[in-house]
Amino acid sequence: xxxxxxxxxxxxxxxxxxxxxxxxxxxxxxxxxxxxxxxxxxxxxxxxxxxxxxxxxxxxxxxxxxxxxxxxxxxxxxxxxxxxxxxxxxxxxxxxxxxxxxxxxxxxxxxxxxxxxxxxxxxxxxxxxxxxxxxxxxxxxxxxxxxxxxxxxxxxxxxxxxxxxxxxxxxxxxxxxxxxxxxxxxxxxxxxxxxxxxxx
Length: 200
Ligand code: GTP
Ligand code: MG
Hints:
Layout: E1 4-12, H1 19-28, E2 41-50, E3 53-62, H2 72-76, E4 81-87, H3 91-107, E5 113-119, H4 131-140, E6 144-147, H5 156-174
Parallel strand pairs: 1-3, 1-4, 4-5, 5-6
Antiparallel strand pairs: 2-3
Bound molecules: guanosine-5'-triphosphate and magnesium ion.
Residues 19-20, 37-38, 61 line the site of magnesium ion.
């Protein structure tokens, strides 16, 4: 039977990593070289058809500028998914992503699905963050990992497909009394791993 599932998502990461561009690519399949910086936060939704089900993504795009950081909590506190974005050409943005993860461990909702996303993968020649390092980090926090280019439309729909798959798995797990804590992206994950075993 077809299902319709609502998923609240929060995009987090430094200013300029491409959060709004990823959202624009996903929602209207467009890209702007001169995307304006986000003030406060922005919201968009999209119905996404996947494996015969409809996923209603409600996506909060937070502003990456430091001065807006205290507002982020309003957007992630009841989110199901946090997409933590870094720019593959910026080590600093990767360090900030880790800070966001630490904050989510402290103050974020239980059982948040976390995605680590390296955007601007079209600029591979300027890469400052090794993708294997970022992939291993994502694994260590029980998170999903993806490389994207909002500019060239690479990896964006795939990211949301992965989220749907994990969401389904998490929903099934929730109906089990002995479900492990955390995002359980890894089928071999042990109970207590993930959020409960937050490495930060
Ligand atoms: P804040 O709103 O300030 O937090 O920034 P943001 O993370 O929303 O970044 P935004 O989407 O505004 O993008 C910043 C700049 O990066 C813009 O000039 C975009 O055109 C550019 N950009 C975004 N995604 C990509 C990408 O995949 N590749 C390249 N080359 N540029 C990108
Ligand atoms: Mg923005």
